[in-house]
Amino acid sequence: MSDLEIRPSATHGRGVYATRSFAPGEVVECCPVLVVPAGQRVLLDQTLLYEYYFYWQGGAAAFALGYGSLYNHSHEPLARYRKDFDAGTIHIVAVRAVLPGVEITVDYTNGGTNPLWFAPAT
Fold this sequence. Notes:
Blueprint: E1 4-9, E2 13-18, E3 27-36, H1 38-44, E4 54-55, E5 61-64, E6 72-73, E7 79-84, E8 89-94, E9 105-106
Parallel strand pairs: 6-9
Antiparallel strand pairs: 1-2, 3-5, 3-8, 4-5, 7-8
């Protein structure tokens, strides 16, 4: 993950930053996921971890490893996430040019089609 680093973020405490440029369409990170079965997900909803998982097949929860669960939300993101259920991964893909030193954000509402499950800082 030398192309990325975690640093303090004005958006939400800490964020994922590029250490090199990424072109639109380029995979920023391929994150394996740790899947928590649907029956156990309700327990997560009562903890801080609620804000860090992705909804997965069958009502399960998936934690994106690497930096995957740490990208901050923005309605004007530099990247998007793409779930691959068969491979058990989430890809973070640049949607605009990303320059070194810039925080990489994603839109967790998927263009407004999904509600946010957390309160964004800004």
